[in-house]
Amino acid sequence: MNKDTTFSIRxxxxxxxxxxKKAKQARLSQSDYVTRCCLGRxxxxxxxLKEVAKQLRAIGNNLNQLTALSNMGRVSIVNLDxxxxxxxxxxxxxxxxxxxxxxxx
Length: 105
Known about the structure:
- Helices cover 66% and strands 0% of the residues.
- By secondary structure, it is mostly helical.
- The protein has two domains: 45 residues; 55 residues.
- The relative contact order is 0.10.
């Protein structure tokens, strides 16, 4: 939606600081944050996805190492295909969550 109007209000500096902080946490501009709050739209804050992504990459690396060892005949693993597909699905879901949080303004 095109922003074509300015709206000014007087608020306590403490409240403004809180709005700035919450807008930053939600990865929204102050204008978008206040507009969403006032119109009853959902403001979603997703924290700590970096740590989840890091752990997911570590699991993927371990899975790749097991696959390589299995292909060399060093370890005997029954079936890693299901695990690989599951990991790919989780990775895709994580990317979708990150993109929605980044672009759903």
